[in-house]
């Protein structure tokens, strides 16, 4: 008997690489996308909702519900860091797309996550592509959430490498460090895919040309919006290509054999100049002192990725659309 597709909820702040991840997800027979939840990060939450609905219009998948997420951090912070300089002011490469046809559902993101996890215990994977506020809210509001959810795949952190906001912090963790610490210490099955891994997955100019030349609906759409993302990478990193953060995390949820990981406790620095730093403890040494890592449950942290295979899957799935 064929195995049932994995149920996936994508928590997203679209975002150019979010758009790519969502389209790859919709082209992946191994999974069933049962909803999108939205969050601030690349754009403010209201625009993330609009963009999520727009992307589902483009895909002809308005059957998929969109639940709007938090507009503020878990500590009610309103001074958000929005990465419009990476994705354009509209989040999707400054293309003036029309308003979406659909509307978000009445439930908010945390309520939707809680409901779906309890409807299908052990069956729903969340792929979190933005700051972790919605997931932390679900964990705080429902004590059963961490056992009902199958896995939380987090695109975030910079494990033993520099961040992309500053040398300490990666953007999604920096967006809500308190929420990230709640998720990492919750006891849920968490897999963190950090930029130490996603920086190995690069879509080059020639890959982009291939997308442009193809007849794939998603490939052509993405070619249009990719200019801003390429420009940013060129200026910030001097690369002739772009990092595929979100598609890599999504594909790690689809097929865990694309990555290897290690296990241990992760804490997040929530203040000071290293705010947003993710610090991994491998649980090998027994320290003489009691530390803030000692009694924390282990999470999985991605270490290597089969970058060639991830890129191949992304290209194939976008071109055959
Ligand atoms: O330099 C950056 N600053 C802020 N956000 C970024 C930057 N580069 C990429 N992203 C966005 O944040 C996530 C990865 O950290 C990705 O979702 C990417 O779209």
TrEMBL record:
Q: Name one GO cellular component term.
A: cytosol
- What's its EC? 3.2.2.2, 3.2.2.3
Cell location: Cytoplasm
Q: Which residues form the Inosine/uridine-preferring nucleoside hydrolase domain?
A: 8-311
List the Pfam families hit by this protein, alphabetically: IU_nuc_hydro
Top-level EC class: hydrolase
Q: Give the UniProt keywords, A-Z.
A: Cytoplasm, Glycosidase, Hydrolase
* Substrates-to-products reaction catalysed: inosine + H2O = hypoxanthine + D-ribose; uridine + H2O = D-ribose + uracil; xanthosine + H2O = D-ribose + xanthine
Which gene is the coding source of this polypeptide chain?
Answer: LOC107812569
**Mind telling me what this protein is named?**
Inosine nucleosidase
Q: Does the keyword Nucleotide-binding apply?
A: no
Predominant subcellular localization, coarse grouping: cytoplasm
Please indicate which superkingdom the organism of origin belongs to. Answer: Eukaryota
One GO BP on record is: ribonucleoside catabolic process
Q: Which GO terms describe its molecular function?
A: inosine nucleosidase activity; protein heterodimerization activity; purine nucleosidase activity; uridine nucleosidase activity
InterPro entries found in the cross-reference section: Inosine/uridine_hydrolase_dom, IUNH, Ribo_hydro-like
Q: Which family, according to UniProt?
A: Belongs to the IUNH family.
